[in-house]
Amino acid sequence: MLGKVGRWAALFSGVCMSLLVAAGIFPKARLSEEKLALAHRQPSPAGDDLLAESMEGAAIEAWEYTGRFYRARLDLVRLLLSVQDDKGEFLFALHLNGKARQRQKLRILDDVSTMAMKDWRVVNNPEDKGTEVRIRLSNRFADERRARTQESREASWSEGEAILCFRPDYFTYRLSLWPDREDDATVAVEDIIYGAGSALAVSTSRLWVWRPDNYSVSLAGVHNLGETVSVWLGTNEESARYVIPPYLAAFGNPRENTWWAVGLMEIPNAAGMILDVSPLPDTTTATGSSPVQFQIRFPTGGQVRGSATTPVAGPEAVFIMGPKSEGLRDRLLKRYVEILDERGLVFHPRQWVDWWSGPIYCTWGDQELAARVRGGSAFDYLNEQQIDAWLKRLAHRQIPVTAVILDSGWSDAVGEWTVHPRWGATPEERVKNLRAYIDRLHQQGKKVLLWYTPHWVSKNSKPAREHPEWLLRDLFGSPASTCGFYLFDYTNPETRAYVAERLRFLLGDGPGQLNADGLKVDFLYDNPDIHLPLAHPEWGIGERYSYNVQKFIYDTVKSIKPWAYVESSAANPFYNDVQDADRLNDDYMPGYTPERYLRRAWVHSLASLNAMDSDDWHAYLEYVDTLFARRAAIGIPALYSSEYRFGPGNQPVALTSTHYARVAAIFQVYRRSPFQLGQAVRVDLANDEFTRWDVDESGNPVRLRAAAMEDGSALVAAELSPAELGPSPSSTEALPRIWITSVRDQELRIPLPSGTRVVEVRARRLDGGLIPARPAWREAPGALVLEVRDAGSIPEGIYYEVVLAEGV
Prior knowledge:
Blueprint lengths: L8 H11 L1 H4 L8 H7 L11 E4 L7 E5 L3 E6 L4 E6 L4 E6 L3 E6 L2 E3 L5 E11 L4 E10 L2 H8 L7 E11 L2 E10 L7 E15 L4 E4 L12 E3 L4 E5 L14 E6 L4 E7 L8 E7 L12 E15 L5 E2 L3 E5 L6 H15 L17 E3 L1 H11 L9 H13 L6 E4 L20 H17 L3 E6 L3 E2 L4 H5 L14 E2 L2 E3 L5 H15 L10 E4 L20 H19 L4 E4 L12 E3 L10 H13 L4 E3 L10 H11 L3 E2 L4 E3 L5 E3 L2 H16 L7 E5 L4 E7 L5 E9 L4 E6 L17 E6 L3 E6 L4 E9 L12 E4 L2 E6 L10 E8 L2
Parallel strand pairs: 22-23, 22-32, 23-24, 24-28, 28-29, 29-30, 30-31
Antiparallel strand pairs: 1-8, 2-3, 3-4, 4-5, 5-12, 6-7, 6-12, 8-9, 9-10, 10-11, 11-20, 11-21, 12-19, 13-14, 13-16, 15-18, 16-17, 17-21, 18-19, 25-27, 26-27, 33-34, 35-36, 36-37, 37-38, 38-39, 39-44, 40-43, 41-44, 42-43
Helix pairs in contact: 10-11, 13-14
């Protein structure tokens, strides 16, 4: 841990000061023009696409790369990579001599790496504008270490390889180490560390993470670097409750608009990425700033092993730079996703089914609030009669829903996924009754999703009683548990076979199956502790385990019903191919404000994810109007409570006719221009912008589809014909139009599509009928100025239809 600075202080201080000469810029490179030309020699006339130049034994002590926004200098003697920004100011240095700490029974052996360069080579690839540097490492004290550890059989590291690949605005780094063993026995690794003990950054006062949820750490995602901090990114309660964040963090100084980011180019076979950062004591630069030291740690819990023939390899990390400017920090996340796209490392869905666009009704809010008002458990209210009553209320209030989620409580035992006894007297009758109810909802034009959590197993369930080998164990051999549940071990093929059979029961349309249309996957973040022994850790541990579990579930669901809908909660681009929508999980937090929810939407938009299920839990009365307008503008609106909302003191408060009319009008307007695959979402919290766009082949927004206006008090949706606007057709019903609703009386100025004019403005009731009173409106240059009424000002509700035609 970097908090233990004492033994490193002298060494690190020397490294730091040598880097900071001349007010923090590089020391002069000791490279002759002849040797520099050798390192950058162009491909031979023979026409080789790649140049691989061995530098073994060469006298070169340094090598440089100049990109678009940074310059990197590699000190081959000290194995130190130092990086300047595009203004020539020092950003950070990374020591390539990392380490992998060993695990021996319950002891962790903190073996300090003493690698030195053995040889190196440069590979230029003109096709992808990349320059790769491969450095072979050897232990300078291998013989001495071998003699010292012979009796204890502890292993040092005999050889290693550091791979750097430089591109114009970023570079990547990976470290591999081979244990020093004469036999092929394996060594268990506790964690892999990059920049161990001697990476540093100057002019850095902030560490920022794009964390969708912040329950036990800073809400703003920002950490002041005046003291030691450890920031964890991955599927764990600290960093992902309840939405899995991107594997990216940024160092910087907001006053100077200086930022650079570090992230991962792959899902790590480890329990996430941990940044350990601490101030460098008694050290300042010529400008008076205080450097920090950092390391990037990948915990593996002793479940990653290496041998003399199999190296211990860390994940490929990426360091991204950009020009010093306003907004650089968040552009780094956008650029990170672009890099993953360019390298073909993340995938985007190609399938979309119309009903996936919703709107969605989920029973959980009604279940919870009914229990608070009437007593009992929330699970008691998930029955046929109660669900019918909630859906009838929505229909009466003219709130349209396409999909219904039967939330927690439909099943008797989590992990076993049998139907709860409230659905019938016998197991066969329960299945028959729930299947009949799902089929009845289908006949009403609704789709049905079932609540599902992949990791948990009820302690009284059949798998727990009859197949304990399917469960994860703690270090003492007892079943591991969390939140009162045991945990499946998905690395066991028998576990996966059982789960696949249960998914067929949930989604299959044959006799004795439930015929549901998809899953609400919950608590995906609740990944097992990295130290729990797995049956087959080679299947994946930590983050890779979490992804593999979700991929197994997703692929199994699609094999049963290709059009089934799977929503989960990962604002992480690597999960794009294992969820059809990212559910924002608007979960309760004491002192709740909309900013917590809107932050999730903002991270989602920056990460260029696929569809957003807006969620609606915890259901607050105070924000029911303005949040719904924003949700409908940027994603798939969901309603979690049809009867009550949470009011002051988190006490249930009944919805009024005004609230119903507002929500109904928002849903009606959303349905005119629902979310579709390939649309781009833009969330700008600073400017209160929540918009959804059609995009061109390059991803550039070309046509506005929906927007929340005036602090979320109004929703505008554009319903345009598939073709571009042409001559006015004979019937106004075929003309493109804009739909508008508002939650207060106000005057709106609505931009019009270029080259269009307003033909007519109509006010409609929720049932679609026209309101006789004509709306007051006028055209201004490029805009419509419209006086709108509160949608809830009359029991019948009100929204507006603007008919457009070509012409100015």
